[in-house]
Specification:
The protein is mostly helical. The protein has helices spanning 13-19, 48-58, 60-69, 82-92, 97-108, 119-124, 127-132, 137-151, 158-163, 166-173, 181-190, 203-212, 221-227, 235-249, 262-273, 280-287; strands at 2-5, 33-36. It has a two-stranded antiparallel sheet with strand order 1-2. It is globular. The model is unreliable at 1-42 (pLDDT under 50).
């Protein structure tokens, strides 16, 4: 058996449960474990062997992590449409996965046969009914906008999405209220299985990078993007190992935080060292 620690970060709660939903899975929090048979074949949307070889040659430190952890389990989200995936993603935003699962089950109950409601059903549902399911006002507005843009054809079908580039999908889907670039990136990774997505604003990826490369603070998105160029065309796989680095670090991961106070501290010190400005009256008195 291959035993792998399960990363559980709140910010990726919805999408990481798709990633780790393989057989023999034991669910847990950050210290939980994932067991998988060595002989079990995983359906991957790209060649993981080539990805591992490329990343190991391009980045020696990442290569050592890959050799230590082994292959990554990958299973795509089984939602039937782009609309359904994003509807569920909206429900999961900013709350725990347990609470979100309860709320989304209530949303599904609003559809025919208690399945995922169609765009037309979401539009016809009263805001009060959606609020009673547990959605905030913002999420109600987001779901209704998603439904309307799906009917208008802005949100593509799953078949059409597979034919579109990453940039095209990002441009279309971020036009939906409440859907940002991060949500679309997670969709590209976990639903479409795109191999070259680097979510530079994902806190888990940022922290994993800081841990693996022994940084004292979380990197800025542009720093992560620049470094990640060496991982092309398998930045998705590299991102997965950044998440795994957080799980492996355990409690030590807490030591790395966002570096937001350095500039403020430097400014305060600089102000202290500056000579105090004298008022015009004091200067006039001294001259007289």
């Amino acid at each position: 058996m291959l035993i792998l620690p399960l990363v559980s970060l709140k910010v990726t709660a919805f999408y990481t449960r798709q990633l780790f939903s393989v057989s023999n899975c034991v669910k847990g929090v950050a210290s939980g474990m994932l067991s998988m048979s060595m002989n079990e074949k995983l359906a991957l949307p790209f060649d993981h062997v080539k990805a591992h070889e490329h990343l190991s040659l391009a980045d020696k430190r990442l290569g050592r992590l890959i050799a230590d952890i082994g292959e990554f389990p990958f299973k795509l989200d089984e939602c039937d449409s782009v609309y359904e995936s994003l509807l569920e993603a909206i429900a999961y935003q900013s709350i725990s996965s347990k609470a979100a699962a309860t709320i989304f089950a209530r949303i599904k109950a609003l559809g025919a046969n208690r399945e995922c409601p169609t765009p037309e059903e979401i539009l016809s549902a009263s805001p009060q009914a959606l609020r009673e399911a547990g959605l905030s006002f913002a999420k109600v507005a987001a779901m209704k906008d998603l439904a309307q843009k799906t009917i208008d054809g802005i949100v593509p079908s799953l078949e059409a999405a597979h034919k579109m580039s990453d940039d095209e999908l990002v441009e279309r889907l971020v036009s939906v209220r409440g859907i940002g670039a991060w949500t679309v990136e997670m969709f590209l990774i976990f639903r479409l299985g795109r191999p070259d997505v680097l979510p530079i604003h994902d806190y888990g990826v940022q922290k994993g990078f800081a841990i693996l490369y022994r940084k004292k603070a979380i990197p800025k998105p542009r720093e992560l993007a620049a470094f990640g160029e060496r991982w092309r065309p398998y930045r998705t796989v590299a991102s997965w190992y950044m998440w795994r680095a957080v799980g492996r670090a355990g409690k030590d991961a807490r030591k790395i935080t966002k570096n937001t106070n350095k500039k403020k501290t430097k400014k305060k010190k600089a102000k202290k060292n500056l000579p105090k400005k004298q008022s015009a009256r004091k200067k006039a008195r001294r001259r007289s």
